[in-house]
Amino acid sequence: MPNGPMGGRRRGGPRPKIENPGKLFKRLMGYVMKNYTPHVIIVVICIFIGVFANIQGTLFTQTLIDSYIMPLLGTADPDFSGLAHAIARVACFYAIGALSAYIYNRIMINVSQGTMRNIRNDMFSTMETLPIKYFDTHAHGDIMSCYTNDIDTLRQMISQSMPQFLNSAITIVSVFISMVILSVPLTIVTLIMVCVVLFVTKKATGLSGRYFLAQQKALGAVNGFVEEMMEGQKVVKVFCHEEENIAKFNELNDELFDSAYNANQYGNMLGPINAQLGNLSYVVCAIVGGVLAINRIGGLTLGGLASFLTFNKSFNMPINQVSMQFNAVVMALAGADRVFKLIDEKPEVDEGYVSLVNAELVNGEIRETQKHTGMWAWKHYHKASDTVTYQRLEGAVQFDDVDFGYTDEKMVLHNIIMYAKPGQKIAFVGSTGAGKTTITNLINRFYDIQDGKIRYDAINVNKIKKADLRRSLGIVLQDTHLFTATVMENIRYGKLDATDEEVIAAAKLANAHDFIERLPQGYNTLLTGDGANLSQGQRQLLAIARAAIADPPALILDEATSSIDTRTEKIVQDGMDKLMKGRTTFVIAHRLSTVKNSDCIMVLEQGRIIERGTHDELIEAKGKYYQLYTGNAITA
Amino acid sequence: MLKVLGAQIKEFKKDSILTPVFMILEVIMEMVIPMLMASIIDDGVNAGNMNHIYIVGVQMIVIALIGLWAGLMGAKYGARASTGFARNLRKAMFENIQTYSFSNIDKYSTSSLITRLTTDVTNMQNSYQMILRMAMRAPASMIIAMIMAFTINARLASVYLVAVVFLAVCLSLIIPRATKHFRQVFEKYDELNSSVQENVSAIRVVKAYVREDYETDKFRKANSNIYNMFLKAEKLVVINMPLMQATVYTCILIISWLGAKMIVAGGLTTGEMMSLLAYCMNILMSLMMVSMIFVMLTMSYASAKRIAEALTEKSDLENPEKPITEVHDGSISFNNVSFAYHKEGKPVLKNINLEIKSGETIGIIGGTGSAKSSLVNLISRLYDVTQGQLLVGGIDVRKYDMEALRNQVSVVLQKNVLFSGTILENLRWGDKDASEEECVRACRLACADEFIQKMPDKYNTHIEQGGTNVSGGQKQRLCIARALLKKPKILILDDSTSAVDTATDAKIRKAFAEEIPDTTKLIIAQRISSVQNADRIIVMDNGEVSAFGTHDELLESSPIYREVYESQTGGNADFDENGGD
Q: Model ipTM?
């Protein structure tokens, strides 16, 4: 299906341009060969055998007519033993041909599916190591389309296009040789016809390509409109805007019809053009061949002509196939380009060497242990002296004149200086976009800072292994995310080896137990679609339980109770208080009740800490906090 | 289902009929060529008759050209029929969706509606084209070739009959099994992709809990599973090709052997044998094609079903016989109203009795899930009450023309949406004939003018899809302004100032009281400060009106109200999310 009608699901993209197809192709082949070199060799051999057997079969027509039918014509007592012999011989060739076709197709399944599996694995494992920044700067739909569209086109290319190309190439060459042997003049006629076919095909492809682009554009417009209106359908209803919408949609839809009709029409034409011009080529050969055979020019026999005509068909077919597959290959290479780009993304750098271990006190000395003691220690390895020292995890966090921007051009945090003593509760307040969430994202190194230092128990966080740093910080995020799994498994995500009892205890701590019990299957209720069947508040409770079971030494709560109504929040607050006890906690909230009893409150504005202190101190100061708190900054 | 979809062919019926006609014509032309070929060989080459070769040769060329013409026509009409069919499907679906009521919309997820209008339609277009062009062509080609073969030599042609039956039996054994396996594997494949999707959107959770390796392991396992399932499915399909080859080869050999004997015995000519060999390929290839079409059609079955579903969905709200188009005033009364989202479902509103006078400002407060939104959604008849009666302007809402009612009852939804276009265009959703001055006035009321003036293109600033280039608070204020432009008798704000800071919120309320005193205003809010100055306040609890009265009355009588009040004032006040100007 050349220029397939609306083939790609990727919206609105014009026909892809690839910078370096050769290099991409080589890399893709490298992927295939890495694990499947012997397989590929067998496949190539099988293709050779198959083509060879096929040609033997076609040449047999000549032998059949010239050696076994013509001489026997008119004989009184024909002897068919020679023919039987010949047929047996060709049967063997055919059998070998069919067998090799089976073998190569069978092996190709393993090669293509296996390669797809490996590419998917590589994509996913790379993706998991990428920094958060990658996910910020790439549309999730685009990432997903690597796993769906791009992989699909790649699979087609590896399993179909590539063997077909090889097959076609070998067939073209060997059929060409056979044709030359049979008759040079007829070969020339065939070649001329092939040129005509290629020329016409190219013209039609060009035409359909132009309309194809227009179609993709129109399709993009329709899809965009549909997405927007379906998203806002309720608003459309409320404003009785249905008729205007239909009018606008019809306009776009008609435009799409026009371009799709033309793109399809010219795309469809390739089929009959190839087929009928092939027939024409066949006919012309038959006429020329007939004349040649009658006049015995160039030693063409009747049998030779019969064989040649079959070759004529088998010469045109692979050429058509190659021209049809060409588009698929271009698409696949564009897909490969995106896939490799994902695989080539730089993973998060982790130069940390300080690790987090379970610890116990033996004679007042910190020792590493395997069991969970509730006590943690930082393990420093000193390369110079090849020694190991332990330092107890306390949970002190210090920001030392930190500047940060998502890009180097625009800083969003300026000169952040703060110090959280172990066990303290630090709150961040301020308006949207003031940088509250950003600060907490720096503690666990979702992002790296441009200037200044962040220290955790006086250790520069850059020196701590990222995994261990994050393990030491429990975090409940602004947007709750749940996984497709049971409630039990979702809570257990915080501690994979937790027993059912531990999960239930954590749920009780977060006050999630009651509502879980009321779910149809209790803890075994399956959550799907990011917990779509739960209310926002319930999802937050689960997220809190998930953080609770991880039992981390320090906590970050980013608007953890924002979607819980004031009354329910009271219940949750108890759980949160239990959870926060004895842990260094960073809280972002817009509810005063959550913030008030903090040891220190930071008021942020435009990326700077403008006020800090306890609730009472800040009220006393009558600054921004006081304004926010009294809620009547202007009208008062 | 086929009837529902078939009804959308409409003006493309002619194309839909012509396409297969031309395709069959093309096939006939193709099938005649080997016949003539036999003539060239037997009466031309073998008989040494050059003239005959030329005559038949020209005939063949003409036939090939007719075939080409028919093929091109088939391509043209096929393209027209299928893309036209797709256009009609999209149009019909979109128009039908526009009639959906809120409860119809709730039933389908947004993404599923989008899929139906995009991918599913594309699938249908491709399938329809295939049915018109291939599903006719392949069997026709098979049958005609078979007839040709039989007219040449019935005895030899019967070999093909046996081969066709044999291949058909084999295919009917392989294909259904393979399809079953494929369906399973695609299901798993979808699951795998949705888990990737989950990972992408929850990447912060994954990283925060250091679960990268765990997720990768999980993925690898699922991925291997899919690999094995694909192998199983494709192992079956891969038998097709060699099976076909073997059948073709066997036929060729049998024809060669029997044909040679017949030729020698004088019952067949060389040319005829060559035609028979040519038909062999045609017959068996067509059979293969038929089985492929079958597989592809079963795969698009799901799309067809989804489209038919969206087309046949009927709005469950209908305009009355003789609709009233004038809303008298902004009074609202609930008489014993109960409401459930589903017929047999649990009622979310129970026995609501309320009397609201025209021009009153009513605050509504209550915890999440206390059915505040459900209560107000009944007023503009976004849903129908399950029991009882709801009167607006003294008349049951079910007696009004829906459009007239909704123009008089303006709702600012909780989950609100701006559309791509300029600010003015967005505002004019409320009143498409509104002058710029009117728009500015509405924006002043909603305190939106102040930030619009700071924008480089002011009222002509382009809003991105979903309103991503304005802040939450700005978006809410624009939505309020848009609703105001309707000049409604009743204005409902469903938690519409949650992202607006308290001061601006107060300014908006003040403007309402001064500028549109005759409009009944219903304000749902979390913040007590947003409602405490209202004429009266409804306290919702668990689907019931727990209390209804003025701020002072409620402080006295309603423990729930008091609790909320205390938690938000004094030592427990709420922090404001500044509008983010």
A: 0.80
A244: contact with B, CB 8 A cutoff: yes
What does the DSSP assignment read for B466-529?
Answer: GGTTS-HHHHHHHHHHHHHTT--SEEEEESTTTTS-HHHHHHHHHHHHHH-TTSEEEEE-SSHH
| Residues facing residue B520 across a β-bridge | B490
Q: Which chain B residue has its CA at the smallest distance from A223's CA?
A: B118
User: Strand, helix or coil at A429?
Assistant: strand
Among A143, A283, A634, beta carbon nearest to B64: A283
Name residue, tokens 């906090």: A625
Query: In 3D, which of B301, B307, B317 has the Cα closest to residue B106?
Result: B317
Q: Do A273 and B68 touch (CB under 8 A)?
A: yes
Q: In chain A, positions 36-75, which contact chain B (CB-CB < 8 Å)? A: 57, 60-61, 64-65, 68-69, 72-73, 75
Angle, alpha carbons B557-B562-B567 (nearest 5°): 175
User: What residues in B contact A567, CB-CB < 8 Å?
Assistant: 367, 560, 563-564
- List beta partners, residue A360: A367
- Chain A partners within 8 Å of B129 (Cβ): 5, 264, 268
b/e sequence B89-105, b meaning 16+ C-beta within 10 Å: bbbbbbbbbbebbbebb
Distance CA A195, CA A101 (A): 30
Other C-beta atoms lying within 10 Å of the C-beta of residue A247: 9
- Spell out which residues of chain B touch residue A470, defining contact as CB-CB under 8 Å: 207-210
CB contact under 8 A, A109 and B238: yes
Residues B68, A121: C-beta atoms closer than 8 Å: no
Please report which confidence band the pLDDT of residue A533 belongs to, taking 50, 70 and 90 as the band edges. low
Q: Report the gap between the CA of B113 and the closest CA in chain A (Å).
A: 7
The HSE-up count of residue A252 (CA atoms within 13 Å, CB side) is 20
Taking the CB of residue B79, how many other CB atoms lie within 10 A of it?
28
Question: A563: which chain B residues are within 8 Å (Cβ-Cβ)?
Answer: 368
Q: And the tokens for B119?
A: 């991918």
Whole-structure pTM value: 0.75
CA distances in angstroms from B119 to A220, B86, B125, B465, listed in the order given: 12, 11, 10, 21
Other beta carbons less than 10 A from residue A327's beta carbon? 20
Question: Is B424 in a helix, a strand, or coil?
Answer: helix
The pairing of strands B544-549 and A387-392 is unpaired
Residue A628 has its nearest CB partner, among B253, B429, B575, at B575
B79, two tokens: 């393209």
Cβ–Cβ < 8 Å for A411, A607 = yes
Give exposure, B293-309, as e/b (b: 16+ Cβ within 10 Å): bbebeeebeebbebbbb
DSSP state of A65: I
**Which residue in chain A is spatially nearest to B245 when comparing CA positions?**
A98
pLDDT mean by block of 10 residues, chain B; 581 residues: 78 87 88 83 79 86 89 89 90 86 78 79 85 84 88 88 88 83 80 80 81 87 88 84 85 87 83 83 80 76 83 81 80 84 76 84 78 82 84 82 82 79 82 81 82 81 74 80 84 80 79 82 81 83 81 81 71 44 37
- Determine whether the interchain pair B71/A69 forms a contact, defined as Cβ–Cβ distance below 8 Å: no
Q: Do A470 and B208 touch (CB under 8 A)?
A: yes
The answer to whether the CB of B371 falls within 8 A of the CB of B334 is no
The residue in chain B having the minimum alpha-carbon distance to the alpha carbon of residue A128 is B212
- CA–CA dist A265, A214 (Å, integer): 14
Mutant choice from A145, A235, A292, A568 vs B, greatest count of B C-beta within 10 A:
A235
**Which residue in A has a C-alpha nearest to residue B416's C-alpha?**
A235
